Amino acid sequence: MPATTIMCPDGVSHPIEKCLANKGCRLYERCAPLPYLRLISFDRKFRGVTPSASGNGPLMIGLKATLPYTIDPDNRAFAALGTTVHGRMADKGLTFNVLSEETLSDDQSRGIADLLEKDEYAESGYLLTDYKTSGSFAVAKWLGIFVEKRDVPIKDDKGQEVLLKSGKNKGKVKTKQERLIKQSDDHIKKHEIVLQLNRYRIFFEKNGFPINKMRAYAIPRDGGTYIAKNRGILRNGYFIPVPRLPDNEVLSYYSTLQNEVDEFLKTGKARLCNEWETWGGNRCLNYCEIAEDCKDICREDGLKWPGDNKVPK
In what order do the strands lie in the sheet with 70-71? Predict the structure, then answer.
């Protein structure tokens, strides 16, 4: 079920139809251009768990599939940009005779892959790519880039360490904090991308397209800014390599998630999103459009809401 109300800047949620017709809003003008409102108010009708659902909990999927919910135009700005990028890339794909935005399905699921192209560096096989327009924080996480802070001694013009002249630390070496940008496989967190791309791979290989390599192409939406550079993201486009997972591991993950969603649709009950699915609770607090409905369920069942780990009052 798509979103049915829009939270306008006047602080009131309006039915989408009235908002698009410029009725019922206290403002003299729409809060955003009409094409933008139409774009952000569209959500695909739920037809089962798709590859892009990796990292989403069954309760979140089930609630969005069955309940009306409110969207904030400001919160969907980046999603609108991502939709635009995907659309323009798909248009270019037609120019270069590659499979772009191809809908695939099997007896378990269906999905739309962003790009399949021949592997120019091999005699046969294909390259599978998924586009990601994300913040620099997520891109750094996918690449395993992190910032290490350390205190280093401050030295004078002669190379001598400067000592503190007063306070409780008088006589100790004066220091300054240094930030080091590092990259390590131990800091890579991209499991949702790995699952998604491997599910697309299975679709294609079942249809006779052997995949040599999988990757995401990430465009940091805040690329070039001070905060992105501080996180170690110095470019405006990165390939994120994706390893191959065993087919049974991928299919088992999506099958379990689908069964959990089916159980919710039958009973109205599902497990709460776990630590990975809630981004450590941050998703619940800032990025989940059905957070209030989730709180209601937690309140009724006496469960701690993942956003603050407390039973809602």
Answer: 13-15, 5-7, 70-71
Residue-level pLDDT, tens digit, the chain, 313 residues: 445 666 666 566 666 666 666 554 555 566 666 676 776 666 777 888 999 999 999 999 999 888 887 777 766 666 666 565 556 555 555 445 567 677 888 888 888 888 899 998 899 999 999 999 889 999 999 999 999 988 888 888 888 888 888 888 888 888 888 889 999 999 999 999 999 999 999 999 999 999 999 999 999 989 899 999 999 999 999 999 999 999 999 999 999 999 999 999 999 999 999 999 999 999 999 889 899 999 999 999 999 999 999 999 8
Which residues sit opposite 105 in a β-bridge?
Answer: 110
Contact 245, 194 (CB under 8 A): yes
- Cα–Cα distances (Å) from 271 to 48, 168, 232, 268, in that order, read 18, 53, 36, 10
What is the CATH class of 43-144+184-271? alpha beta
Instruction: List all residues 6 or more positions away from 138 whose beta carbon is below 8 Å from its beta carbon.
Output: 132, 218
Residue 90, Cβ neighbours under 10 Å: how many?
Answer: 17
Extract the tokens encoding 217: 């192409």
The alpha carbon dihedral of 185, 188, 191, 193 has a sign of negative
Domain boundaries, the chain: 43-144+184-271, 148-180
The DSSP secondary-structure symbol of 87 reads H
Q: Does residue 47 come out as left (phi exceeding 0), alpha (psi in the -120 to 50 range) or beta? A: alpha
Find residue 33's DSSP bridge partners: none
